[in-house]
Amino acid sequence: MDMDITYIVESSHSISSEEFQRVKDFVSNMLDQFVVSSQPNETYGGIRVALVQQAPRGFLPDRNETPVALEFDLVTYSNKDLMKKHIQESVHQLEGPSAIASALQWTVENVFFKAPRQRKHRVIFTIVGSKTSTWDRERLREISLGAKCQGFTLFTLALGSDVSDSQLMELSSSPTEQHSLMLGKVSTPEMVYAQRFSRAFLNLLQQEMNSYPSPELQEECENLDRGDIEQEASTTERIPFPAMAESGSHQVLEDMEKNQSRVMKSMKENTKEPVHTMPEMRDDYEENEYFTEENAKREKPQECGKAQKDKKNIETTVETRGACKDYGMILEYENIF
Fold first, then answer.
1. What's the rounded mean pLDDT across residues 209-223?
2. What are phi and psi of 50, to 5 degrees?
3. Where would I find the beta strands (DSSP E) of the chain?
4. Mean pLDDT in residue range 329-334
5. Half-sphere exposure of residue 211, counting CA atoms within 13 Å on the CB side?
6. Percentage above 70 pLDDT, the chain
7. CA-to-CA separations, 257 to 39, 230, 264, in angstroms, rounded
8. Contact residues for 185 (Cβ-Cβ < 8 A; gap 6+)
């Protein structure tokens, strides 16, 4: 799969040391599902992974400080075992404030846009356990909308019940039900469920079942890109989003890298509230190895209604699930636990 993925992990004083360790284990386990690029700095294709924590102790946006601790960027490692070793041995809880909006903007500008040979799919995987700080909350909507309009795929894993529905929606691509998961606990069954849910989401991404930005955001994105009248730019000059590029079209990605400064202006403008819809899906993924050539060639998934007839009833302890009619991709696995 042709993908850049950055995990933004909350490391604030609002989450416990046990929760933080669970998050580290979750990210490490997810790495086992990836075929990591062996030459992340030199060639196109493959999966590149980055990890950042938010936010350092004493961080405030008006002090010109960095809102994250960069653990490793998209080209630091070409081996997932080295990534896992770094996570378990070198990642320590920062115990600062929650500043997800600031971290999101910093990640887009300094992790994705500064990496060479950007991939077709660019995923921001946010793991949060609390509401972001009041001084950070006001900027979240415009920054997240700016990222969505630039073709980023946003997925959110929320731990506990402190994260509001509005924050979850702002941090997640549309349809929200496919791009977010809220867990009431961080026990082993819940984290296993989160891994399976996340793998199902990544399978949807591989199958290109959704478009980024989503159709209902197109008008808002055009207004955001256009800016105010004094700085109005022709829509014909807009930079193509990666999701619109032809498979293997490296020229589009190179053009994006040359025009990053103009693109980033879209994250500075005031925006309207995004509208979220729930399109009908046709996904019923079976559990297997992910992101391999063999997996990419498999047949299209069955329709949800048909697939359910042959599946066993599954009971779990996770508080938040979701019906198949809402998003068929969610965990119609046999023997899920």
1. 91
2. -130, 160
3. 3-10, 47-54, 68-72, 121-128, 153-159, 180-183
4. 40
5. 11
6. 67
7. 19, 25, 11
8. 160, 319
